[in-house]
């Protein structure tokens, strides 16, 4: 129930709707019981038992102890006033009363559902928003360990499971228990002896249903995890379809997907069949209860031992009331199943929400809105898992200078880009901007000082204009065009059918590699940050595209502090300082000509023409 309580906390902003829902359900339960009780006067008229002398004046209220007697006399008095003793009119009067009771019951039901719609959909929206917000706040290290499909499953299907499990139970919390309580009160008033049988059977129903539902949470968890697996396979397939087709691996991925959906099929069948036991089990137990009441109550009526209270018409009303318990009892049993099922979904959602964020801003973190002197890497060491990727790394980058990082794969070049942008935190040492540890800055103000261009040009299925405005949300069209010119991209954008309003497709699929990279550079130019981080920005391009992109990069780096992670010689030979990394440590550093003259590690890399 702890997960259920956690989910209900999201209902606090919608307490007005919750109150309306509760009040409507109280009236639904009340009118539902009264609509059954109102059948008794009609049955009395039909069975010619309405021959009691009606009271000559309206009865007086004598307290709750005499509620039943007061209600009966009150109804008898007003019915006699209206009908003048005519049984045909009395029948019409009672039928009209029954219609009014059912009308009020159904109006209450509509209002309860009306308020529940706003309550339930509001809670679902807030949960989904919170999971998404937490997902984008969590560090890259968390996301790299998770299946994307599993996260998608939690934000979509798991949240929907909550909507139709936990949140559907909100409807049952007030309505069904109150219906049972009001019905039992009426049944006790009619015959305490018969009602004892109800109290015997209801707990029995609860015990049996509880035993059936014990494994439901485990089965539901299995279904949701398997859904995450095949969604991951689908996401990977869509992302890597070019490679899958290129290697003729369609059958392999198809087999992997079908194996997962087959497991999902079997798990879902077991879960659904277990759920399907709820309704027939509770209905069968209810009929058993009705049968016992028929046998015992029928004997009481036939033998006359029940006194004047249990006449034939009263017994029929009692039977109707006892059957009236079955519907809410079945709903409660389904609700118990849903809580078991929803527990797994709530646990998976809460797991994301409760995941600690190690990169969260410190209390009273500093907001930095300028870059004035230098960037300092002060004796930093870092590891992703077991082995250190950087060891005791020291470097100072003065404002306005361009520093290039070169070395073979695994030497730690890209790690420095990940650390300066604080996608990860150092294990030892500190990185400072203007003498302030970046861990003491707000993450947003730190990244506002940085512009990032990566090897893979990450673009979104939107217009060129909106892709660039990620760098500056309120940029004018003129500013966007200026940024495109600096990035050497205006030459192809101006020829597109809709110019900067052209949609570039999923991940920029309508553009070439060089065009996509120049747009990502334009995005960084539009942001106009004082510090640029270029992570192998030209390594994936052909020679012609590289030349165009290189010109764009040189335009962008003018009057800016730049950290260039290099793959090719052409991108770094004019750098103010080149840092040669080897196994996480600085092997050499200096200008291009000086390092060539040393004939060391850098010279060998130049000869190989490969800065991997």
Short précis:
The mean pLDDT is 77.
Describe this structure in words.
The protein is an alpha/beta fold and 612 residues long. It has a domain of 352 residues: ABC transporter transmembrane region fold. Helices cover 61% and strands 10% of the residues. The chain is built from 23 helices and ten strands. Strands 6-7-8-3-9-10 form a six-stranded mixed β-sheet, with helices on both faces. A four-stranded antiparallel β-sheet has the order 2-1-4-5, with helices on one face. β9 and β10 form a beta hairpin. α2 runs antiparallel to α5, α5 runs antiparallel to α8 and α18 packs across α20. The protein is elongated. The relative contact order is 0.08. The mean pLDDT is 77.
CA-CA gap between termini: 54 Å
Q: Supply the number of helical segments.
A: 23
Largest sheet: 6 strands, mixed
Number of strands: 10
User: Which residue ranges are poorly predicted, with pLDDT under 50 across at least 5 consecutive positions?
Assistant: none
Beta-strand share of residues: 5-15%
* Strand ordering within the main sheet: 6-7-8-3-9-10
Query: Mean pLDDT score, rounded?
Result: 77
CATH superfamily of the domain at 2-353: ABC transporter type 1, transmembrane domain
Shape assignment: elongated
Which structural class is indicated by helix and strand composition?
A: alpha/beta
Q: Determine Rg (CA atoms, Å).
A: 37 Å
Helix content: 55-70%
